[in-house]
Design a protein that fits this description.
The chain is elongated. The chain is mainly alpha-helical. A hairpin with a 2-residue loop joins β1 and β2. It is 68% helix and 7% strand. α3 packs parallel to α5, α6 packs across α11 and α9 packs across α10.
Length: 163
């Protein structure tokens, strides 16, 4: 099921069809993540007086997006935090935070950010890919998918402030 179909199912076809540009923005800002789209659709369903443009505006600022993608017992941030907690290896966790600072990150940049050799950095980055937390980018780079990158950037800011 694509993002539009999920929004239609949860928020109603009439609302989605009434404002296709806002619906497209919501799908784009949720990066197609099913959990994020489910939360967005549920928010709209429980606020029938709010237009889709309202939610699209609320999701627009990156620094607030993960906060907005929470409703009831569901939260994108909480789901990502649970996945991150399962990482276990401190070097792999640090590599995740380093990736949060970059759209694309090569192994050398990661090694510098981690303070380790290239082979150790590469192993940590590959482990993130194995865990489904990161993706292999173009060429020799790694990246975090949209909302995951926002979560990692938050962790990176916290890590930098503490460290």
């Amino acid at each position: 099921m694509d993002g539009f179909e999920l929004l239609i199912r949860l928020a109603g076809a009439e609302r989605v069809e009434a404002d296709p540009p806002a619906a497209a923005r919501i799908v784009r800002l949720c990066h197609g993540v099913p959990l994020a789209l489910r939360i967005a659709g549920t928010l709209l369903a429980h606020r029938p007086w709010r237009p889709l443009a309202w939610l699209a505006r609320r999701l627009e600022p990156e620094k607030r997006r993960l906060t907005e993608l929470s409703y009831g017992g569901e939260s994108v941030r909480a789901a990502y935090a649970a996945a991150f907690a399962d990482v276990g290896d401190p070097l792999v966790a640090a590599a995740f935070r380093v990736l949060g600072r970059h759209e694309l990150c090569d192994v050398t940049t990661a090694a510098v950010g981690l303070g380790v050799g290239v082979l150790e950095a590469e192993a940590a980055l590959d482990r993130l890919v194995d865990l489904g937390l990161a993706e292999w980018g173009d060429g020799e780079t790694y990246r975090l998918p949209g909302l995951m990158r926002l979560f990692a950037a938050e962790l990176s800011r916290e890590w930098t402030a503490v460290g």
